[in-house]
Design a protein that fits this description.
Number of domains: 3
Strand content: 25-35%
Order of helices and strands: EHEEHEHHEHHEEEHEEEEEHEEHHEEE
CATH architecture of the largest domain: 2-Layer Sandwich
CATH class of the largest domain: Alpha Beta
CATH topology of the largest domain: D-amino Acid Aminotransferase, Chain A, domain 1
Shape: globular
Radius of gyration: 22 Å
């Protein structure tokens, strides 16, 4: 079985479990011992902070201990550190080059890249360069971040001045899109070939993460997703966010080089992205299957939970759902 190490596993139980079902031996790491994904992996380990000098050594030790072939980061937090250390980690890191990671990590730099490549992206400026005739509303957006944090909508010049003064992070300004929003979940091989691109509607989002959506077989979006992924040089998973405007143009607003929050939807639609990742880890070269997925699959996400208790040795262990006896008596009982 192929061993896969997930870093910054957090709450991504869906991804860790999907790789397990695909035949992987799963190892999950996180700084937080209560991160739910740790408890759904075959093995888990508490990692140092990403800014700790020993972070890379700790990851390498897990690679050696479990004969890991593939490292899959589940948030953006350690991307740069992992790609810089990929030669010393002893396993395939499912990320593009450092240049690409840096480019998409800075949303304004990514916008400039898209413009240079002729890929539509909403008009965007650094704060000092916003023209007098800018079309409002505009968005004040953080240059480096995720989860829709530090984003403000300005309806006029006064709003813009206020939010630029209010925000505490390095920001840029982008024209607000008026069309319909879509996300495209892509997966590329180690050479940057897009193996599949699965568009989905954005029925409802919270905190920048899709909680309701539906896969659609839209040829224009499929081809657009593949074009953007290959122009960037993505490796492994990526999520491309775009808006379709009235003239049919697709404006890219964000690209994340990792599995998206709505991972269960393309998985249910037949993406087989975990299997593709395992194939890459084993030296295979899968052929692209653009457009091969099931359209009309709807996703609606919900909260779940895991209860833990101290085991005999003091370590935490999952707690059985069935209690041996009631915690409290029936109503009316003393």
């Amino acid at each position: 079985m192929t061993a896969v190490l997930f870093t910054c596993a957090g709450q991504r139980v869906d991804i860790v479990s999907a790789f397990g079902r695909a035949g992987a031996t799963t190892i999950a790491t996180d700084l937080d011992p209560l991160a739910p994904a740790l408890w759904h992996a075959d093995h888990h380990s508490i990692a140092p902070r990403i800014d700790d000098a020993g972070y890379v050594d700790a990851i390498r030790a897990l690679v050696d201990e479990h004969d890991v072939r593939l490292i899959v980061p589940l948030t953006d937090l350690d991307h740069v550190k992992l790609v810089r250390a990929r030669e010393q980690l002893g396993a395939i890191v499912l990320l593009p080059s450092e240049e690409v990671v840096q480019r998409v990590g800075d949303k304004y730099t990514a916008h400039c890249f898209f413009e240079e490549r002729g890929i539509p992206s909403p008009p965007s400026w650094l704060p000092a360069d916003v023209p007098e005739d800018a079309c409002y509303p505009v968005l004040v957006k953080v240059r480096e971040g995720f989860g829709s944090r530090h984003i403000f909508r300005a309806h006029d010049r006064a709003d813009l001045a206020f939010f630029l003064g209010y925000t505490t992070v390095d920001s840029f300004v982008q024209t607000a899109c008026r069309g319909e929003e879509f996300s495209i979940d892509v997966f590329c091989d180690l050479e940057g070939r897009c193996l599949n691109a699965i568009p989905r509607t954005m029925i409802q989002s919270k905190g920048g993460e899709s909680i309701k959506g539906m896969t659609i077989h839209d040829r224009d979006l499929i081809e657009f997703g593949a074009e953007v992924a290959e122009a960037l040089g993505l490796v492994g998973p990526g999520t491309i966010q775009c808006f379709r405007e009235e003239d049919g143009r697709h404006d890219v607003t964000d690209v994340n080089p990792r599995f998206g929050g709505a991972f269960p939807l393309p998985l249910a639609a037949g993406s087989r992205y975990p299997e593709l990742a395992l194939a890459l880890a084993n030296g295979e070269r899968p052929e692209p299957t653009l457009g091969e997925f099931r359209a009309g699959v709807l996703m609606t996400r919900f909260f779940s939970h895991l209860c833990l208790t101290a085991g005999d040795g003091g370590d935490l262990v999952p707690f059985a759902e069935e209690l041996p006896e009631p915690v409290a008596g029936e109503p009316g009982e003393t």
